[in-house]
Design a protein that fits this description.
alpha+beta, ten-stranded mixed sheet, 6 helices
Length: about 290
């Protein structure tokens, strides 16, 4: 029986990631779990906003978003990240996130989502900076980026490159504590945005990053008949760190799984899809938006 994956998720309040499948089924991703699947057919556009793609378009295997250009445009048309919504009545939070030494960004997320967006991005440590209406959060986010010289996006390949050699918890927290202090000292914050005290939230244990071995390869794409199988070592952001039956250490970006029909594969199947040298910054051709 074939299943279609709708991506990796971090349920609210959960301490582990899950793989979500069309129809509502979820598969918990616990360390030590054996995973194995094989792709069938072609990779199809997943549509937009819960609607099927009218073109039933085929999408590239290396794209991290399984949408054709038209569905991608429609999906982004109602996206906070794309800055296309100005009248969202929800409360938003501004955050500072740390992914590795010198690798810090600021962003916003709906307060009701709690830390889900930070987990999705693979943020190792983060702290809230402020809370308030959407446009106030957006204006303050832009102020912080400009004044502090930090980006709003960090490529996943960069995050993966440092994930297995992180400093200790105190050093991780210290870097964003300094940025938090500088951020709260700036003038020009939106008046309706409440400033929040520093509190470091560390996800290293949730992700399973303690003594995580460095991967040798990164899956570049799935292909018809290609298999990925191994034992789960860690799940960080959209990435699964796997050890194959032959002992190879591989990272799979689960965004590459969407759009495919997947069937179970023997745990000993290993990896029979295109990969790239992890040390060369390999991975999906089109990186994500976070």
């Amino acid at each position: 029986m074939a299943w279609r994956c709708s991506g990796l998720g971090w349920p609210r309040g959960a301490r582990m990631a899950v793989l979500r499948w069309d129809g509502g089924r979820v598969s918990p991703l616990t360390a030590g779990k054996t995973l194995g699947f094989r792709a069938e057919g072609v990779r199809s556009c997943v549509g937009a906003r819960g609607n099927a793609c009218p073109l039933r378009a085929v999408v590239p295997g290396r794209a991290t978003q399984a949408r054709c250009p038209e569905c991608a445009r429609l999906d982004r048309a109602h996206s906070v990240a794309a800055d296309t919504i100005a009248d969202d009545p929800r409360t938003y939070r501004v955050y500072v996130a740390w992914f590795g030494p010198g690798m810090v960004k600021v962003g916003i997320t709906a307060e009701e989502r709690e830390s889900a967006r930070l987990l999705e991005q693979g943020a190792v440590v983060f702290s809230w900076l402020g809370r308030g209406p959407l446009m106030a959060a957006r204006r303050t986010e832009e102020l912080l980026r400009s004044a502090l010289g930090v980006p709003d996006r960090i490529p996943y390949a960069h995050k993966r490159a440092v994930r297995c050699e992180l400093p200790g918890p105190a050093e991780r927290a210290a870097e964003i504590e300094d940025l938090h202090r500088r951020a709260l000292g700036l003038t020009g914050w939106a008046e309706s945005l409440e400033r929040l005290e520093f509190l470091a939230v560390d996800h290293a244990e949730v992700f399973g990053l303690g003594r995580l071995p460095a991967p040798g390869a990164v899956v570049r794409e799935l292909t018809d008949g290609g298999a990925v199988a191994g034992t789960l070592l860690a799940a960080a952001g959209p990435d699964l760190h796997l050890r194959t039956a032959e002992g190879e250490l591989v990272v799979l970006d689960t965004r590459l799984m969407t759009g495919w029909s997947l069937i179970g594969a023997d745990p000993a199947a290993g990896v029979s899809v295109p990969t790239a040298d992890a040390n060369a910054g390999g991975g999906a051709v089109q990186d994500g938006l976070f």
